[in-house]
Automatic annotation (TrEMBL):
Organism in which the protein naturally occurs: Cellulomonas septica
Protein name per the record: ferredoxin--NADP(+) reductase
Keyword Methyltransferase: no
Cofactor: FAD
Catalysis: reaction(s): 2 reduced [2Fe-2S]-[ferredoxin] + NADP(+) + H(+) = 2 oxidized [2Fe-2S]-[ferredoxin] + NADPH
Keywords in alphabetical order: FAD, Flavoprotein, NADP, Oxidoreductase
EC number: 1.18.1.2
Cross-referenced Pfam families: Pyr_redox_2
Length: 470
């Protein structure tokens, strides 16, 4: 795909496309579409006042290198040919019929922000939390409560992926080690007061089956005053494990890091906090007293040769006062759009959204996590977006024409309805405001959390905070 001097026109004017969700998937889709030979005019809707999706509200604050992806996404939107309309929620502020009035095609890239379910007794107890909620809290998502109960000394984290590692690391890390990051002030204060000493991560399967990435795992070993402890009795490698180690460099590196940790001498473990990594332990029940979490029961599992495990019936109770399940994310249904309740995605064929009969709903597309489920890294959403845009381009000549395609029609409509949308200029003001909050402490930014303060900053009308604002 390349730029031509005269872009192709299918509708006697620029094709009007709405992208709903300004995470990486939506921004990549808009970028790829804008670079095709087709004359297009793209609006990018976002429910939050700030763009960038889980890069801003999922990637951990102590991962500044990954957060830098925002710089690349920022550059795409800064060009000015893709219009940002943030603080507009699909489903409440507008619905599909409204979008059809203004656009010839709509791409949904609304991602996933909820926790997948883990159906074990006690999982809904006070003191048992979803990782997605905790992540939203520590990353300063404006729509979640400002406080988080951090009274537990011993905590269990259920899961064997990078989100489990993020949660364990943020829980165990000394808050002062987060201070150089963009961590919001309320989050720092509560983490600083946390009495936690031990975080136990439980994986159902063996060391060769975990989904940790090597870098994230190795990072655990460098957290100041936090020891990583593994247990030799959890190290079982069957034929399936050996095949996995030999066929995947990633698995090989993960297993090496874990195995190196088994060699640590007890006298090397001097930190005041610990992260314990347990394998072949399947959580079977969250234990309670008076409605509060007091423990976790796990069942020892055994590898059965094909990468899976079976329970041995042998259980162990761990005294923990809080449980975090990091067993995956799950998409949320969107008004007037089909939803696959089992997979948690919008049903689609290569990005073309389909109805219950498998028929493509004309002009409606999906991309990113809401298209293929909540797996994969930010980079994967790019190839995903390419596929969706390729299908849209094939369909473009036959797309029904919107009645009011003028770019100002939709913004006037939003204003009439009292929806305070935030355009790119508003994001720049908000961005500058967060940077100004960080500058006195030499930090790149301090994230603002309350929605009204975010909106005030985007209007250039935020109250000045004192220099002590963390
Ligand atoms: C805790 C966590 C840590 C991660 N860490 C890394 C990492 O270190 N490296 C890495 O490569 N990947 C990481 N990922 C994966 C990465 O975040 C995803 O691959 C990527 O964000 C998916 O992109 P997306 O655009 O599909 O979804 P999202 O990033 O979720 O973006 C969706 C956007 O749509 C908006 N939206 C939702 N509903 C509506 C609506 N109704 N109306 C308007 N807008 C709406 C949302 O507000 C959001 O901005 C992490 C994921 C999680 C959960």
């Amino acid at each position: 795909m390349s730029h031509t001097t005269t872009p192709a026109r299918t509708h006697g004017r620029a094709l009007r496309v709405a992208v709903v969700g300004a995470g990486p998937a939506g921004i990549y889709a808009a970028d790829i579409l804008s670079k095709t030979d087709l004359d297009v005019s793209i609006d990018l809707f976002e429910r939050l006042p700030a763009p960038f999706g889980l890069v801003r509200y999922g990637v951990a604050p102590d991962h500044p290198r990954i957060k830098q992806i925002i710089v690349a996404l920022h550059k795409v939107l800064e060009r000015g040919d893709i219009r940002l309309l943030a603080n507009v929620d699909y489903g409440t502020d507008l619905k599909l019929d409204d979008l059809r009035q203004f656009y010839d095609a709509v791409i949904f890239s609304t991602g996933s922000i909820r926790d997948a379910a883990l159906p074990i007794p006690g999982i809904d107890l006070d003191g048992s939390y979803g990782a997605a909620d905790f992540v939203s809290w520590y990353d300063g998502h404006p729509d979640v409560p400002r406080t988080w109960p951090l009274q537990a000394r011993h905590v269990a984290v259920l899961g064997a992926g990078n989100v489990a590692l993020d949660v364990a690391r943020i829980l165990a890390k000394h808050a002062d080690d987060l201070l150089p990051t963009e961590v919001p002030a309320n989050v720092y204060d509560l983490l600083k007061a946390s009495p936690v000493t031990d975080v136990h991560v439980f994986a159902r399967r063996g060391p060769a089956q975990v989904k940790f990435s090597p870098l994230e795992l190795r990072e655990l070993g460098h957290v100041p005053d936090v020891d990583v402890i593994v247990y030799p009795e959890d190290f079982e490698f069957d034929e399936g494990s050996m095949a996995a180690i030999h066929s995947s460099n990633q698995t090989k590196q993960v297993v090496k890091t874990l195995t190196d940790w088994t060699l640590k001498e007890p006298e090397e473990l001097t930190a005041s906090r610990r992260i314990h990594l347990h394998f072949l332990h399947k959580p079977v029940e969250v234990l309670s007293e008076d409605g509060k979490v007091v423990g976790l029961r796990t069942e020892r599992t055994a590898l059965n040769g094909d990468g899976n495990v079976t329970g041995t019936g042998q259980t162990h109770d761990w005294a923990v006062q809080a449980v975090y399940r990091a067993v995956g994310y799950f998409g949320s249904p969107l008004v007037d759009i089909p939803f696959d309740e089992v997979a948690g995605v919008i049903p689609n064929r290569e990005g073309r959204v389909v109805d219950v009969d498998g028929e493509h709903i004309p002009g409606v597309y999906a991309t990113g996590w809401i298209k293929r489920g909540p797996v994969g890294l930010i980079g994967h959403t790019k190839s995903d977006a390419s596929e969706t845009i390729a299908r849209l381009l094939e369909d473009a000549p036959g797309l029904e024409q919107a009645a009011s395609p003028e770019p100002e029609a939709v913004t006037e409509w939003l204003v009439e309805r009292g929806v305070e949308h935030v355009e790119w200029s508003g994001w720049l003001l908000l961005d500058a405001y967060e940077r100004a909050l960080g500058a006195p402490q030499g930090r790149e930014r301090v994230k603002v959390v309350p929605r009204d303060e975010l909106l005030a900053a985007a209007r250039g009308a935020a109250p000045r905070r004192g220099a002590d604002a963390r």
